[in-house]
Amino acid sequence: MANIIMLTDLSAPELEVYAGLTEAQLRSRRAPEKGIFIAESPKVIGYALDAGCVPLSLLMEERQIERAARGILARCGDVPVYTASRDLLARLTGFALTRGVLCAMRRPPLSSPEDVCRTARRVAVLDGIGNPTNIGAIFRSAAALSMDAVLVTASCCDPLYRRAVRVSMGGVFQIPWARLAGDAPQWLPQLRALGFKTAAMALTERAVSIEDPRLMTEDRLAIVLGTEGDGLPQPTIDGCDYTVRIPMGHGADSLNVAAASAVAFWQLRAR
Known about the structure:
Blueprint: E1 3-6, H1 16-19, H2 23-27, E2 36-40, H3 42-50, E3 54-61, H4 70-75, E4 80-84, H5 86-93, E5 101-106, H6 113-117, E6 122-127, H7 132-144, E7 149-152, H8 162-168, H9 171-174, E8 177-179, H10 188-193, E9 197-201, E10 208-209, H11 213-217, E11 221-226, H12 234-239, E12 242-245, H13 257-267
Parallel strand pairs: 1-4, 3-4, 6-7, 6-11, 7-8, 9-11, 9-12, 10-12
Antiparallel strand pairs: 2-5, 3-5
């Protein structure tokens, strides 16, 4: 049964997780097993629960208790449910709540690249992408367009960053992901050892079209995407088996990395 707590004091220490802690503090790098992330909206929270994530508390508009959040409350047992009016909660968080519901959850144990790639045929590798909106959008596309896993480098934004989770619409809980160790291109031999050919998405003279039939015939392919603007580091491009570009029209030279990822995932999906 839900443990409903009406808010009267916005300075209560239990609420610090929703407004007083930075993303780095939530992540708790010194003790990852104590790390927390924030999921927004009943739909995203539901995906996180489906993936086995453990809820610690909820924060929601009072009106959502008998509306959008009913199903979530039934699944979260007796965790504290902090509630107040929409205006009062906006004062606490600094913004209107997405679908009126937030959930603080324990960070799940992180899988290894070997675990998430064991049976994978197509994986996305995100190298140095620091924008959480792009990370979330790429995860959403990866989940929807038949990628088997996502690997992120140490220089990437945390996929459980609040905005990344929100933009992914739960994609970060629908597709396996793991972190690669080391800076580029130290992790390329690891991908080869796992049986993958690598395709760097980059604008170079030696790049082949994304429609090149050799790409579609690869049994296991890792699609490597770099940060917005600068793209992939040259050592990473040089170390990949293929350099791939998306043909452009109307004089355009490139797409946003999130849009490019969706095109690449669809075209290069395992047949």
